[in-house]
Design the sequence.
């Protein structure tokens, strides 16, 4: 459960110790006991989060295809292998598809995993697991499959942990001014910029921030529960004590506990 900060750090310590001992950890989601709330959904996503955790240089995803193609090679004989690209290139999602055999565990999940891995600066290689000695050849620098590079500098460890959380307890709908401040300046989220509060959450829970059209903007750990946040929405910070009778914090989400997504 990587959503728990203590367990996250314990997992990091255990994995680093194993790697230092030259032990290869084998990690898999336990489908028999996992709940939907904390389900990763596929091993591509889990692998990307482990790459973030360890600050790995590369994530290698093996599949039954030679790599990512510009069309489905099983149906289009003219499909061409994409040798290299940017992990955050929006065109890749369209190429990878979203359903059927290309859905869960397919190319679309591998593209999303590459985007996750890029947060910690890792490159991603999508290659065929049927190639002989494929891991050794990739490590030796041979060009196999599709190489997807990160487009931006790695984000800090705590921000990676925040960005990697799949479980959110509620949603804050932001006005245009708040969206611009978060995206442009990396500032804290103040109550005055919140238009609506959705869901049920407690202080310290992870919440999603969206714009008024529903597009994702940021995620963060909220300083007030849902009931308090509803009372504070749209109000300036200096009014917090008058509204609640106390001040837990002057911002709904402090910038240290917030990551733009």
Sequence:
């Amino acid at each position: 459960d990587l959503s728990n900060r203590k367990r996250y750090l314990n997992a990091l310590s255990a994995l680093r110790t194993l790697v230092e001992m030259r032990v290869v950890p084998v990690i898999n989601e336990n489908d028999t006991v996992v709940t939907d709330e904390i389900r990763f959904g596929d091993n591509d996503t889990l692998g990307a989060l482990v790459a973030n955790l360890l600050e790995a240089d590369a994530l290698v995803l093996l599949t039954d295809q030679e790599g990512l193609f510009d069309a489905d090679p099983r149906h289009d004989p003219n499909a061409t292998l994409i040798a290299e690209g940017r992990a955050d290139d929006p065109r890749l999602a369209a190429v990878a598809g979203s359903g059927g055999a290309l859905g869960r565990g397919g190319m679309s999940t591998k593209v999303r995993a590459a985007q996750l891995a890029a947060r910690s600066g890792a490159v991603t290689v999508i290659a065929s697991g049927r190639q002989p000695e494929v891991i050794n050849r990739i490590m030796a620098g041979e060009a196999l499959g599709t190489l997807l590079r990160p487009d931006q500098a790695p984000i800090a460890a705590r921000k990676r942990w925040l960005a990697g959380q799949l479980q959110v307890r509620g949603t804050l709908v932001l006005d245009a001014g708040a969206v611009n401040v978060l995206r442009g300046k990396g500032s804290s989220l103040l109550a005055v910029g919140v238009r609506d509060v959705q869901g049920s959450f407690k202080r310290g829970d992870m919440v999603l921030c969206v714009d008024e059209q529903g597009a994702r903007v940021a995620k963060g750990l909220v300083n007030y529960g849902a009931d308090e946040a509803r009372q504070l929405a749209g109000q300036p910070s200096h009014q917090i004590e008058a509204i609640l009778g106390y001040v837990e914090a002057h911002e709904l989400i402090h910038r240290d506990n917030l990551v733009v997504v």
Remarks:
- The longest strand covers residues 58-63.
- Strands lie at 58-63, 84-86, 123-128, 146-149, 170-174, 194-199, 206-210, 216-221, 258-260.
- The domain at 168-260 is CATH 2.30.130.10 (Archaeosine Trna-guanine Transglycosylase; Chain: A, domain 4).
- Residues 98-105 have pLDDT under 50 and may be disordered.
